[in-house]
Amino acid sequence: MSLAASVAVARGPMTVGLDVAVADGEVLAVLGPNGAGKSTLLRVLAGLLRPDDGRVVVGTDVWVDVAAGVHLPAHERRLGMVFQDHLLFPHLSVTDNVAFGLRTRGVRRGPARAAAREWLARVGVADLADRRPGQLSGGQAQRAALARALVGDPALLLLDEPLSALDARTRLTVRAELRRHLADYGGSTVLVTHDPVDAMALADRVVVVEEGRVVQAGTPADVSRHPRTDYVARLVGLALLPGTGEGGTVRLEGGGRVAVAEQTAGPVFVAVRPESVALYPSRPDGSPRNVWPARLVAATPHGSTVRCELAGEVPLIADVTATAFAELGLAPGTPVWASVKASEVAVYDR
Amino acid sequence: MGGRWAAGLVAVALGVAGCGGDDGAAAPGGATSSAPDDGPSGTLTVFAAASLTDVFTDLGGRLEGQHPGLDVQFNFAGSSALATQVVQGAPADVFASAAEPQMATVTDAGLAAGEPAVVAANVLQIAVPAGNPAGVTGLADFAREELALAVCAPEVPCGAASEEVFAAAGVAAVPDTQEEDVRAALTKVELGEVDAALVYTTDVASAGDAVEGLDFPESAEAVNAYPIATLTGAPNPDAAAAFVELVLSEEGRAALSGAGFRVP
Amino acid sequence: MRGRREAGVPAPLLVPALLAVAFLVLPLLGLLVRAPWSELWPQLSSPAVGQALRLSLVSATAATLVSVVLGVPLAWVLARSRIRGRSVLRALVTVPLVLPPVVGGVALFLVLGRQGLVGAWLDEAFGLTIPFTTTAVVIAETFVAMPFLVISVEGALRAADARFEDAAATLGADRWTTFRRVTLPLVAPGVAAGAVLCWARALGEFGATITFAGNFPGTTQTMPLAVYLALQRDPQAAVVLSLVLLAVSLATLLLLRDRWLSRAGAAA
Q1: Between B148, B178, B179, which is nearest C114 by CB?
Q2: Where is the ABC transmembrane type-1 domain (chain C) (predicted)?
Q3: Is residue A150 scored above 90 in pLDDT?
Q4: Domain ranges of chain C
Q5: Could you say which residues from 192 to 251 on chain B have a Cβ atom under 8 Å away from some Cβ of chain C?
């Protein structure tokens, strides 16, 4: 069941205006910072919020058509939703939580429970069927919540930050499982997240939402390689530099030039990956074409490396090993030289 | 409840007067009083049955008029509640009860100064809503199941009196409610919620046009005497004596009789 | 360093707390000390006391049931709906809390009495008169006690996470099903606490009852009325009756609490 939605919701001074389309079996990730309007979109799709304008069509069913005065209430929509903090009903057993949606839709208790147990087995928590949600770990609860959302074979699956309440290790496993279940699921999925890793790992397509608008759309690989806003660039850990292509070099809007490996013209973005930036205490010998003086602004541990934020004519992010960081005697305010090979610089049209 | 609050207020008032100092408010005996007429002054506290409210307020005002230095405070409530308060040490000068057993509570505790005097008597009357919609004619109507009827609870004086008149008249009364005091019974007549209630003559007299009173011969079987006494612990015995004297005087008797009491 | 949580009570809390305990418990102790214990059994076994006690328990329980049936939906409206004038409604609902109960009784007369707005019609159309009946006792107690339940349940509803109701809606539950199967179980402890408060208030109700329902042994004389009237004639008996009422209500509350707690424990 495909989804086509176009919604407008006035939210204080901001108006959320988003158009999304999701094909059958496709997973669309809606990525954006807090307050961008992601959850507003999800609540409209779920029927928990009436939009001020727009249409929501799933398959051939019109769920919302403001102009025509159509608004199908939430409980009449064939959908499943997974919330950030699972929202399993604390007074019901895990089985009854999963059977809940079938019971409200008229399935008798026996068959509903049987179907619930089957789904609990599929998500790997069959042994917890008789527990109360309070006795489950975060990962177990989120698995049960996924079973609860999918058991009714919904036309639309809505995932609202499904992994963000989990600890890092659990998130990794549950993400992998979720990926598998989404692959098996035939309907349309909308995943709301502010974690680019979720979007990259789970989605077929990504839309980036900022301040109520779609600012970028594309495949996860495309979006992560070619960010178009600072927000996305920061999310995927790139330094994003707008400029103008002039043959083999780009004149940056903030000043300075970057040598690139291809011929360009007109407005372009230059994206530099942190691991491709090398730092030196003094101007390096030889003749690398991209060398700039800079100053260390901030340094944070990032995996086995240290992520260094640099200020200067060309603002960059550099990942250096802890050893190198120590050898360079880096501290906030330290002047350094930054260098990057032209072949390591991504350039694409704005 | 109201009685206790009132008692508290009186206690506060007394305290304030006492602190006030030089007018001898709380000075026992009043001999040191500097009032020009050398009569009672200060604060006089009278505990009296609720049915005496109108008459006693009037008489108290007259006494204050005769003695400019005197302030008369009243605590009107059910006699039983008042007797309990007096026994528990409430600072009263005079106690006037609506029945003898409650006065006995006080005299038994040795708190009455001298023998209580009977100031008035009250008899029962049938109270009906204005126009007497149910056509009540006499005590026998209290045996009619179809009427809504109120009497006082047997625990309170008017209820005990009611039982006596029913017994004397040979009426098997079927009341719908036994009210906690005579005023509550009267209220139900005023609201038209009962067709008749057995209350005191004085209550009917005070109720105004909403209530009519019907006399009945058996009322003579239960004449309720109102005893009054000054109290041994009276903070202001001179004023207490003056008040009791006024109540028992021709003037006092006339006022009581005007309010529907029988006067001895 | 024992790994035990610091359990001391700071003095600024301890002293007022002890004063509060003394204030609440000493009058009770007074009743216990002064009680003529030899009269206890004769009073307990007297049919009049049994009658009043039974009537009290039955009417307070009925009033609580009525309060739950009507009050929980009202609490939901106050907590969840967006109807206009909700704050005015809430203020009106809490009026019985501040109204002297006797005035409440008179107000009930004005509506449900023989001459009352609704009562006159009931009398004419069906020959029904409410005052001076056990029904009137239940009505008076409900009038005075229901606000306790409404306020308690409204608080529980406000504290409950409304997103569970969203979750239920996405699972196909309409608002009524959501209320029955999700909201109500979630606020069950609040409803229980409110019902207990309501029951206790109804059990002790005096002013509105004696005004609206009158006082007649067997039909409208509840324990508080019996206590009050006993006080007129025999204060000693009144003390004993109070203790009986006290003991029965305490026993009931403890029993309920135990049962309820043990069930909640099994659920957790």
Answers
A1: B148
A2: 53-256
A3: yes
A4: 46-222
A5: 192-193
Q: Domain locations in chain A?
A: 3-233, 237-349
The residue of A91, A92, A132, A158 whose CB has the most chain C CBs within 10 angstroms, and thus the best one to mutate to test that interface, is A91
B188 touching chain C per CB within 8 A: yes
CATH dotted code for A3-233 = 3.40.50.300
Q: Which of A148-157, A218-227, B19-28, C29-38 has the highest mean pLDDT?
A: A148-157
Residue B226 marked as a ligand binder: no
pLDDT at A254 over 90: no
pLDDT digit string, tens, across residues B142-181: 999 999 999 999 888 788 889 999 999 999 999 999 998 8
- pLDDT tens across A152-202, in order? 999 999 999 999 889 988 999 999 999 999 999 999 999 999 888 888 889
Q: Which chain B residue's Cα is nearest to C213?
A: B177
Superfamily of domain C46-222: MetI-like (1.10.3720.10)
Q: Tell me which residue in A48, A80, A92 faces C169 most closely, judged by beta carbons.
A: A48
What pLDDT score does B25 carry? Answer: 39
What residues in C contact A134, CB-CB < 8 Å?
A: 268
What pLDDT is stored for residue C3 in this prediction?
54
Q: In sequence order, what are the residues at sequence separation of 6 or more whose Cβ sits closer than 8 angstroms to the Cβ of residue A188?
A: A1, A2, A3, A22, A23, A24, A25, A26, A28, A58, A155, A156, A157
Closest CA relative to residue A219, chosen from A193, A194, A201: A201
Type of residue numbered C24: L
Tell me, what's the pLDDT at A89?
Answer: 96
Q: Is the pLDDT of residue B8 over 50?
A: no
Q: Does domain A237-349 correspond to CATH entry 2.40.50.100? A: yes
- Phi, psi angle pair for C35, to nearest 5°: -65, 135
Which residues of A lie inside 8 Å of C (Cβ-Cβ)?
A: 46-48, 73-77, 79-81, 83, 87, 89-92, 100-101, 104-105, 132, 134, 148-149, 152, 158
Which among A48, A80, A134 is the nearest to C166, CB-wise?
A48
pLDDT the model gives residue C223: 92
Please determine, for the modelled complex, whether the ipTM score is greater than 0.85.
no
Average pLDDT value for chain A: 91
Among partner residues B155, B176, B180, which is closest to C132 by beta-carbon distance?
Answer: B176
User: Over chain C (268 residues), what is each successive 10-residue block's mean pLDDT?
Assistant: 65 92 89 81 81 94 97 94 88 90 91 89 88 94 95 93 94 94 93 92 93 90 90 80 84 76 45
Assess B163–C contact: CB distance below 8 Å, yes or no.
no
What residues of chain C lie within 8 A of the CB of B150, using their CB? Answer: 214
DSSP for chain B, written as a single string: -HHHHHHHHHHHHHHHHHHH-TT-TT-TT-TT---TT----EEEEEEEEGGGHHHHHHHHHHHHHH-TTEEEEEEEE-HHHHHHHHHTT---SEEE-SSHHHHHHHHHTT-EEEEEEEEEEE-EEEEEETT-TT---SGGGGG-TTS-EEEE-TTSHHHHHHHHHHHHHT-----SEEESSHHHHHHHHHTT-SSEEEEEHHHHHHHGGGEEEE--GGGGG-PEEEEEEEETT-S-HHHHHHHHHHHHSHHHHHHHHHTT-B--
pLDDT of A177 reads: 93
Residue A14, SS3 per DSSP: strand
Residue B77 has pLDDT above 60, yes or no: yes
**Partner-chain contact B180 C106, CB within 8 Å:** no
Is B182 annotated as contributing to ligand binding? yes
Domains of chain B with bracketed CATH = 2-21+41-120+225-258 (3.40.190.10), 124-221 (3.40.190.10)
Nearest Cα residue in chain C from B155: C233
Cβ pair B177:C215 closer than 8 A: yes
pLDDT at C136: 95
